[in-house]
Design a protein that fits this description.
CATH topology of chain B: Jelly Rolls
Number of domains of chain A: 1
Distance between the termini of chain B: 24 Å
Order of helices and strands of chain A: HEEEHHEEEEEEEE
Oligomer: heterodimer
Shape of chain B: globular
Number of helices of chain A: 3
Order of helices and strands of chain B: EHEEHHEEEEEEEE
CATH class of chain A: Mainly Beta
Largest sheet of chain A: 8 strands, antiparallel
Helix content of chain B: 10-25%
Largest interface: A-B, 19 and 16 residues
Strand content of chain B: 35-45%
CATH architecture of chain A: Sandwich
Distance between the termini of chain A: 28 Å
Strand content of chain A: 25-35%
Chain lengths: ~180, ~190
Amino acid sequence: MVDINFYYLEDATLSNLNRIFNSADIPFIRLSKFLDEAPNKIEPELISEEKIGYYNRKIGNALLEDFWKSSDFNDFLCKATGLKPKFRNSNHVSYSPGDYSLLHMDESEASRLLVVYDLTKEWRHEWGGYDIYTSPDKDPLVCNRDFGSLMIVKLDSNDLSCTRYVSIKSHFSAHIDRIIYDLD
Amino acid sequence: MRKTEKVLLVKAFPYPHVIVKDFLDESTLDLVIDALAGLEYDFKESDLFSYWASVELTDIDHPAINILRDDLGDELWRKKVAEAFSSKPLSSIDMAAYVYGLGDFLLPHDDQVEERIIAYSLHLTPEITEDMGGSLQIFNVDENNNSKIADSIIPEYNSLIMFEVSKHSWHQVGEILQDIQRLTVTGWYHG
């Protein structure tokens, strides 16, 4: 099992995270170097997943599936967000050159907490592949790729998320563990 | 003026589409490109696309644009297009100019909006080649929503591409891979 960077477990830090998360337009925090040691070898078994006009990507089991389900991580989420998230599912998702996902209102879901752990190495912004979150009447939130960062975002029923088209000039693929927690 | 007065054989697979080569005569082409070069373009970006777009060209009163609007949308041509596609009569067109630069793209979509019958795109970039990107790629989509590129059409200078708009008409503009400006006039024939 992996460990959370001790800095993020200190009371003062957690209190700050909670404040920042709940004061954001779209509740969001981004935590760089979230784990003590980020996984280095990323070779999950993936299958292609396509629904034209919606997404084209590869998907498999989350690399850190046990950790995302663990009580340690759940405790951390509760303290950092002030919410009571319940684990729903986790996946490893990869976006290769030419892959994308798009925003569609018909994919709207109930309120949920979305956690993205970034396993993308040596990325360049111009390759795209960044995450976009939208909420009615609010500015969209754009999260660039950054290896080892954890992103936590609360999405309400009309909020949407997608991953920007990856340029076919990209030398690599974007890799993330994507975890969804239900909220009461 | 139009150089071509015929809409040749419409290909049926994966959905009805046709390429009309040498659509405009040289002098009209020069005037139209000069007029389009003088327009302002706004950068438009979303999860689906990235490109520069002009204002709606049906709102502009400019001699060359007026000729272009007639060449693409006069009654005689609309009748020929409707006959070629065996569609219902086409009553009007809309049109705008689009410029795709390095890195720009338009991801898969089907163009379905009420009253759009035939989509068209007149390509105005000289000497464009496949390795520059920007091909119009049309998809064959199976019942599981899995796609395969059925045709990748290089947007040759002065070629007019048209296709029938339906739930099957999935297409995209491939990413521009070199420092070019892919210029088109694009729009729809309405019923």
